């Protein structure tokens, strides 16, 4: 790296960090998740707003490779946090409702996405048409667990029935999403020159299962600093392993977070969030630089509307219907459906992975990024609409009033 590249890299990191924080704060002031402003900051830095000439001058091509490296570290830590935040026992007390909601919330948009993908093959299919359609279904079916958890915390609903069912259903939804995406990526990689590396998947999964038994012993004897080092280094190692297999680093990092001991999760989340805060802005800009409207036409606007409609109808309708069939009151079912419609940063991670692996093209990527922003922005207004002065039940059966004020973080 030359001195000029180093200077530009540091300047770019400062610019995008400040822009992400500022626009994230603006989003929060508008009652929206901060992630909307942070993603918007990346799009603003790209050719859509600044134009290709100015954008390339600020973020030179020879510096973008280094930004991508920072972005990958940030995403690996984010996926570790997403896995670590999932409570593996959270749905044991309401198994029927959680199972019904999580399956319906995933299956409905997934099927609609596949059908929609089949109709868009002629304009957007990248290489393998079946994988394109299935990826579109997977992209529409995702729920952003970290964003949903923050919404519930800000709303004071973490201990309510809606909150606990929502968290558990989103956790199951996330596992389904990453499993399906992993199969799609594996099918894509199997046909590549490095397809033989997939033979390492089985021993890797055995190692992950073994970690679930070994890590608790380590956590009981390790110092906090040693535990943080194990968490970060293990995340990067597991991410590197799945990246080497051709499965993308997000899967290894997520699995490591999923099996990591929960006893010190608060400590790990606090410190890894501090580290990822330095790296994630690079992901926003690398994702935003790939958004382009130049290849879109009038038909693309119609496609965007249909994509948003399919995403909302599938996720909201599937969740609401399942909750009502399981006996939830209309308001609680509506609140649950509103929460499950959140996509946020998790969606962006999936889209970037799909683009880099050739499952979707630049035009479909741009449309799906816009759709992710729109559907995430719908969460707060819909939650206000259904919450109002709703009486929501805690797991013990008592009811309390939910105030209409809403302040949503990342």
Automatic annotation (TrEMBL):
List the GO biological process terms: proton transmembrane transport
Cited InterPro entries:
Cation/H_exchanger_TM, CPA2_transporter, Na+/solute_symporter_sf
Q: How does it sit in the membrane?
A: Multi-pass membrane protein
Protein name, per record: Cation:proton antiporter
GO function terms (MF aspect): antiporter activity
Q: Which residues form a coiled coil?
A: none
Gene Ontology CC terms: membrane
Which residue intervals define the domain Cation/H+ exchanger transmembrane in the entry?
21-383
Query: Where would you find the membrane-spanning parts of this chain?
Result: 6-23, 35-59, 65-84, 96-120, 132-153, 165-187, 193-211, 243-260, 272-292, 304-323, 344-361, 367-387
Q: Where in the cell is it found?
A: Membrane
List UniProt keywords, sorted A-Z.
Answer: Ion transport, Membrane, Transmembrane, Transmembrane helix, Transport
For this protein, the record's Pfam families field holds:
Na_H_Exchanger
Q: Which domain of life is it from?
A: Bacteria
Record-linked PANTHER family:
CATION/H + ANTIPORTER (PTHR32468), K(+)_H(+) ANTIPORTER 1 (PTHR32468:SF0)
């Amino acid at each position: 790296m030359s001195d000029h590249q180093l200077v530009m890299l540091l300047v770019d990191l400062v610019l995008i960090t400040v822009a992400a924080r500022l626009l994230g704060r603006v989003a929060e002031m508008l009652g929206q998740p901060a992630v909307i402003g942070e993603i918007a900051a990346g799009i603003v830095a790209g050719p859509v707003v600044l134009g290709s000439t100015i954008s390339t001058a600020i973020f030179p091509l020879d510096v973008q490779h280094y930004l991508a490296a920072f972005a990958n570290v940030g995403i690996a830590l984010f996926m570790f946090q997403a896995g670590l935040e999932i409570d593996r026992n959270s749905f044991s007390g309401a198994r029927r409702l959680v199972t019904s909601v999580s399956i319906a919330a995933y299956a409905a948009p997934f099927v609609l996405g596949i059908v929609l993908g089949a109709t868009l093959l002629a304009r957007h299919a990248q290489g393998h048409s079946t994988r394109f359609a299935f990826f579109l279904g997977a992209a529409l079916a995702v729920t952003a667990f970290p964003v949903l958890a923050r919404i519930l915390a800000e709303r004071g609903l973490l201990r309510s029935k809606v909150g606990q069912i929502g968290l558990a259903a989103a956790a199951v939804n996330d596992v389904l999403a990453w499993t399906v995406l992993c199969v799609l990526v594996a099918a894509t990689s199997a046909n590549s020159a490095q397809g033989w590396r997939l033979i390492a998947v089985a021993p890797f999964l055995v190692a992950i299962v073994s970690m679930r038994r070994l890590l608790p012993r380590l956590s009981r004897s390790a110092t906090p600093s040693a535990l943080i080092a194990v968490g970060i280094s293990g995340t990067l190692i597991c991410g590197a392993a799945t990246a080497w297999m051709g499965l993308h680093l997000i899967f290894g990092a997520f699995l490591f977070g999923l099996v990591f001991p929960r006893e010190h999760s608060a400590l790990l989340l606090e410190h890894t969030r501090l580290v990822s805060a330095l790296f994630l802005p690079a992901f926003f800009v690398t994702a935003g630089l790939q958004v382009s409207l130049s290849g879109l036409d009038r038909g693309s606007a119609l496609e965007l509307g249909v994509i948003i409609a399919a995403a909302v109808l599938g996720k909201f309708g599937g969740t609401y219907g399942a909750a009502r069939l399981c006996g939830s009151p209309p308001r609680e079912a509506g609140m649950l459906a509103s929460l499950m419609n959140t996509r946020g940063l998790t969606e962006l991670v999936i889209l970037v992975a799909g683009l880099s692996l050739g499952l979707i093209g630049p035009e479909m990527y741009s449309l799906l990024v816009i759709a992710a922003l729109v559907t995430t922005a719908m969460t707060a207004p819909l939650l206000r609409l259904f919450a109002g002065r709703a009486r929501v039940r805690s797991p013990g059966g008592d009811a309390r009033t939910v105030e209409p004020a809403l302040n949503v973080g990342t």
